[in-house]
Amino acid sequence: MRFLPSIITALTALTLTSCSTSTTEQYEATALTSYSWQVKYANNLTSQPQPRIETFANTSVLNRNGLKPAGAVVGPDDKGLWWPTLPPRPSVDEVEQRKRPQEEVGKPELVKDVKYKLTYGVGNTQQTLPTNYDVYRQVVKAYPQKTPLELTLGVNDNSVEKAEPVSK
To answer: For residues 25 and 67, what is the distance between their CA atoms, to the nearest angstrom?
Structure first.
């Protein structure tokens, strides 16, 4: 009987982490590419584990199904993504204005970021969920032919983890 609690725990964990699947012919993948200038502030930049980070100017462009978006100036890169123009670097005055007493200021750093999402329809409902690069690329390849995709959803159906073409 002493194994019963661990068996129940294991079955509960499996149930909570199970994934569901959905097949769709209506889908759109987006990748929001962005650049932001960030500066770290801390009382001691070398020893403080969690410096305060301030974000200054940023620019972004929305990639949709792998097509070149309006406003894109760089790309496609080695992942097939298009990028916006660089935002203006913060001036020394702007950086110093956000400094608190006793704080040290780091150098402005240009941060690149990509957020992937998939919007898909099943019946009359549409769902938009976060996803990853692999799903984005699968949609980019399937989109021109409108190939149906089987989507594997993540834990609690809060994300799309996988997309695979379904033969008609």
So the answer is: 19
Nearest to 153 by CA among 124, 122, 111: 122
**What global pTM score does this model have?**
0.82
Q: What angle do CA 58, 136, 162 make, to 5 degrees?
A: 130
pLDDT tens by residue, 96-133:
999 999 999 999 999 999 999 999 998 889 999 999 99
**Token pair of 111 as six digits:** 């941060």
The residues facing 22 across adjacent strands are 151
Q: Do 36 and 58 meet the contact criterion of CB atoms below 8 Å apart?
A: yes
Assigned token pair, 68 = 């070149």
The SS3 assignment for 154 reads: coil
Amino acid at 46: T
Q: Among the residues of 41-118, which ranges form H helices?
A: 92-97
**Among the listed residues 56, 60, 59, 57, the one whose alpha carbon sits nearest the alpha carbon of residue 105:** 56
